[in-house]
Amino acid sequence: MRKNVFPAGAVLLVLGVLGLTAQTDALFQKARLAPLSPEYLRYQEAVRTGRWPAFTDQGQPSPIPSPIDVAYLQGFSPAPATALPSTYDLRKLNKTTPVKNQSPLAGTSLFATFGSLESYLKPLESLDFSENHLDQSSAGGGFLEANVGALARWDDPVDEEDSPWSGSVNGEGGSVVKHVQNVLFISPRENALDNAGIKQAVMDYGAIYSEMYFASAAYNSPNRSFYNEGTAQNSHSVAIAGWDDNFDRAKFFPQPPGNGAFICKNSFGPGWAEAGYFYVSYYDAYLGRRALSAAFTAEPAAGLTQNYQHDPNGCLARMGFGEETAWFANIFTATSPDPLKAVSLYLYAAAGSYEILVYRDIVPGRPRSGTLAQRVSGTLSAPGYHTIALSSPIPLAINQRFSVAVKFRTPGDSFPIPIEHPLPGLKAVFTARPGESFISPDGAIWSDLVTYDGSAYARSNVCLKAFAGYPVIYSPLNLRVERLVNNFAFFKEYVDRLNWLPNPLNADDSLPVVKYRIYRKPISAPDESFELAGESGAQNLVFYVRNLKRDDRNTYRVTAVLENGRESDPAEISNL
Amino acid sequence: MKKFVLSLITPLVISASAWGAVRWEVGLGAGLRTIKDETLRSTYGQGFVYTPYVNYRVSRTLWVGLEYEGGFVKKARIGIFQEESRLAVEGVQAYVLYGKEKGAIRPFVKVGAGSFHFEMDIDSPYVQAYNFASSDISILFGAGLKVMLSRKLFLSGELKYTALWADPFDDLVDLGGLRLLLGVGIQI
């Protein structure tokens, strides 16, 4: 009797599995890619027919347009938190950095990107990031997502001096000085008066990356004004640094229907227009309307130490199962004992809700196996690249396999899964390996992305990063250096006096700043030459570098050091 | 060498003998000195000096002399960081003195040259390389009075300026200054 049980059970099991599979296929659509943007499709067609590169008025190749279609986001701006002023100018608030000149090359998206990021860090930090390096990192992408991808993978930003914009894109030096963990996307303006999203972002974050078409005929030189009624040529990016609701429409040529202009920082050098800035009419057909605008933010590089990722090129496409909800996951192997602190993903919808699950010691190929270490849920209120902190650090051991799985719901959008995906016409290198990125309609049945749908995603990865490290330590503020002469009558000792302010963001009483470290190097020496000059107590915000010669010129770095020995990013200054 | 010394001394002894009396003076002066360099003056202020001397009469009104100046050793905090420091200046000068021969009050002037030794120590790990001891040539101009208390014993008052420039490093420092000295002496 017992001999007959096994064959019968096996048959039932096979039938059950077949039935479940059939049921799954019936329940869920096959995942598919979101439509590409019309501009990108035109670009692809131009590439295919050999009509690319198109050139701008200045004879420079037009940048590649963003492949992601965001037309459905048009007009999805959250209501401003407070009444917006009629005029606002970041230049008057010490929230802008010097205007640069892109000549002799194109690359306006690079300048607009750092126009935004540098502005975010002002006035506490006045940094100058390298567009040249970002150009290399983003594979000359020239569009928002390529820049975000390079920054999110921690290849940028580096200091301008380490890779200057020399007119030849060959600089790859320097080390990353900030971590870009959040980029707020601002939905395209629906009409000329749909400006609250951009304005609120300018007030909250600083200058805003925005795209337009720079038709030369639309620029009115005497009034430094610009109004493009509808000439879609010369793709261009600027940083919006303010606005003036009362900017007279008579100052534009031709005249728009109403007053009002955004104050835009261009990349034609400080000698152009109003010290490099110009006024773009609210009624411009393209500024902030043809693509996403963005507010770039950054945090000190001292904090998160490990960036576990499979999507070095960033989010270039989206996919979904025809539902607002989808699951995606990445499997990583720990390369450091630093605990897992955060997870990042992209949201291309007006809002989203997430449930993040972190598993340790998983079985290869099964992202939700092993031990559930943490479950975090929450909502996102704006599109963008978001880093979400875990509720508590998750210990990891070197070589320990772990996974991050996300249940993501994007109301009104059926492509919740952000992916890195090779598209014809992109210059970046795409690679993917089995067993790393997974998608699922329900969190139960998972598919390896590289083998999903034949070879369609063989070089695609899920855009889901995991970050290990420690709480961020912020750099000292307002670092200054002053040359003093210590007169001993028979000789003079030259002294550099450094002083700084504590960063109020380092206010964790359980792990206080206990001292500051001061490093120095000759001003012309490479960064590797920095040597410890000394330390000062947490309350002693001054340091004297003594026994200098009259002609000695040094660059100094000051870091904050916590009780556990961890050190902040340096604040840096040179004695010129 | 002996011949050389004898050749110097013999004419003096002979000439002194010509005046028929012992014409040595031995004395000790003491008083205040200033330093012209502003930094040193503001740091260390005026100082006490003492000057033992010996004069030898070579004619009715002319003397040659040798004096030592010591006692100027000052400690003070110096520089931005107010570090402990010590300055010491001492020197030997030879001079020619012209003075009135007779009377109870005998004014005199003198001019000479010498060598001063000076030291500076700063108690700082940063500038120890600059602690030094050095010497330079000085020039003196002085004038004063001798008040005869008896045939041999006298009191003296003297105002003297010693010019002394020092540059042990890059900076030239004026260590010169006035001395106001009171003293007592005896003619032998």
Record keyword descriptors for this entry.
heterodimer, A: 576 residues, alpha+beta, Cathepsin B, Chain A, Jelly Rolls, Immunoglobulin-like, 3 domains, six-stranded antiparallel sheet, 33% strand, globular, disordered N terminus, B: 188 residues, mainly beta, Porin, eight-stranded antiparallel barrel, 13% helix, 62% strand
Describe the protein.
- The complex is a heterodimer of chains A (576) and B (188).
- Chain A has 576 residues and is an alpha+beta fold.
- Chain A has 6 helices and 32 strands.
- Chain A folds into 3 domains: 71-296, Cathepsin B, Chain A (Alpha-Beta Complex), CATH 3.90.70; 302-469, Jelly Rolls (Sandwich), CATH 2.60.120; 477-574, Immunoglobulin-like, CATH 2.60.40.
- In chain A, strands 2, 5, 6, 7, 8, 9 and 10 form a 7-stranded mixed sheet that branches. Chain A has a 6-stranded antiparallel sheet with strand order 11-4-19-16-25-13, sandwiched between helices.
- Chain B is mostly beta strands.
- Chain B has one domain (21-187): Porin.
- Helices cover 13% and strands 62% of the residues of chain B.
- Chain B is built from 2 helices and 9 strands.
- An 8-stranded antiparallel barrel of chain B has the order 1-2-3-4-5-6-7-9.
- The radius of gyration of chain B is 19 Å and the shape is elongated.
- Mean pLDDT of chain B is 88; it is low at 11-18.
- Chains A and B meet through strand 26, strand 27 and strand 30 of A and helix 2 of B.
The termini of chain B sit apart by: 28 Å
Q: What distance lies between the first and last C-alpha atoms of chain A, to the nearest angstrom?
A: 95 Å
Q: What share of residues are in beta strands of chain A?
A: 25-35%
> In CATH's first tier, which class of chain B applies?
Mainly Beta
Number of domains of chain B: 1
CATH-defined fold name of chain B:
Porin
| Helix and strand composition category of chain A | alpha+beta
- Spans of chain A of 5+ residues with little confidence (pLDDT < 50)? 1-26
